[in-house]
Amino acid sequence: MREDSFEMLAKTLQGLEGVLAEEIVQLGGNNVKPAKRSVFFEGDKSLMYKANLRLRTALRILKPIAVFDAAHPDQIYEAVKAVDWKNFMDSDQTFMVETVVYSDTFRHSNFVSYRVKDAIADHFREKTGKRPSVQLVNPDLYIHLHIARKHCTLLLDSSGESLHKRGWRVKQTEASLNEVLAAGMLLLAGWKGQCPLTDPMCGSGTLLIEAALIALDIPPGIYRRHFAFEKWKDFDRELFRTLYEEENRKEFRFRIQGSDISARAIKIAAENIKNAGLSKYIDLKVQGVQEITQAPPNGLLVCNPPYGERLDNNKLNELYQSLGERLKHVFAGNTAWILSSRKDLLNCLSLRHSARHFLMNGALNCEYRRYDIFSGKKKDQFTQ
Questions:
Q1: Which fold has domain 179-219+248-372?
Q2: Do the Cβ atoms of 33 and 40 come closer than 8 Å?
Q3: Tens-digit pLDDT profile for residues 145-194
Q4: Which among 102, 121, 197, 216 has most CB atoms closer than 10 A?
Q5: CA gap 250, 24 in Å, rounded
C-alpha cells in the first residue's frame, strides 16, 4: 500500500457486490475485494472523493480508523477512548454513532453505541475539559462501529446521508425504486447508452434518470449538496472542487422512453427528470402496457413492474400476461430485463429467461431476469 493510500469500505445492496467492485476497479481502486453487501478497496483521498461522487451502486464510503477485539462493552469503551480523536474532530464539534452487530457476544447495538459515545466524550473531557455533543441530524462526524463476533472495526463515514439520495428527486410514487438498485439493474443489463432504452412502467422515473446519467457519464453525486468528508479536519477543498468540476459528459445518440398508466406518476417523473436537467434525453407518455404498439429496434427494456399488495393477484396476472404479450409482438429484436419478487408472476410472461440475478428490493428477495426477444419465430423463445 502506498504511503498516501488507505483502506476503504463501500457498502451496497445485496446482489450488487460484483457490479460495485467493477465500478471501483474502473475508478482506480486497488486490492478490490467484494464481501457481503460491501466491497473493500484501497486508494488515496482523491479516490475517496471520486468514490462518493461517481460510484453508482455504493450506499456509503467508510474509512476504517481502528481495529480491535473485544469480549465486553467495557473493552470497546477503552479501545475507542484510546483513539487519538484530535486527528478527526474537535471538542466543540458534534458526532453520531451507528453500530452494526453480527455477534452472539454483543446483542444490543444501542447499548454498544452508548458506550462508544461515552468513550469519545470522556476522551475529550479528560484532554480538554469539554465534551463534544451527540447530534443525530447532520453532525460534523459520522462514526460507525462494525462488530463481527468479537472483531471490532471503527470507521468514519465519508458520505453522511446515503448515496442513493442523489439530490435530483423532487417527488416519488408509492414503492419508488431505490436509485442504487436502479443503477445496479442497468449496469447488470450491460447498459452504457449504446441503444434506445424503454421502461413501460416507469413510475417516478428512477430507471430513466439513472439510465441517462450512465449514458451521459454524469456523476450521480453531482446533485448532492453535501458529503460528510467536507467537514473532516483534513478536507482538501481545492482537490474536491477540481474533481467536482471535471466535465466528462459523453455523447448520447439514442432516446430513453418511459410510460406508465398513471398520469400522476408521469407528472412526478417529469418533475424529477426536469430537476435532473435531463428532459431533452427522455420521452414520457401516459400509456398502459397493453396500449404499446411501437418499440425502438434493437433496444433495451428494463422494468420493475408491480409485485406487491397494491394490486390483487388477478390484476397482477393480467398485467404480466399483457407485458409478455407486448414483448413478443412489439419488442422483437429487443433485450428485456424484468425485476420481480414473485416467480408465479414472471411465469405469466410465458417467456424463457436466458440469465438471472438475485437482488433485494427493500426487504423483498427478487429475481432479475433477462429475456432475449427474437425477431420472427424461434421455438425455444417461449415457455411451455
A1: Rossmann fold (3.40.50)
A2: yes
A3: 999 999 999 999 999 999 999 999 998 877 789 999 999 999 999 999 99
A4: 197
A5: 20
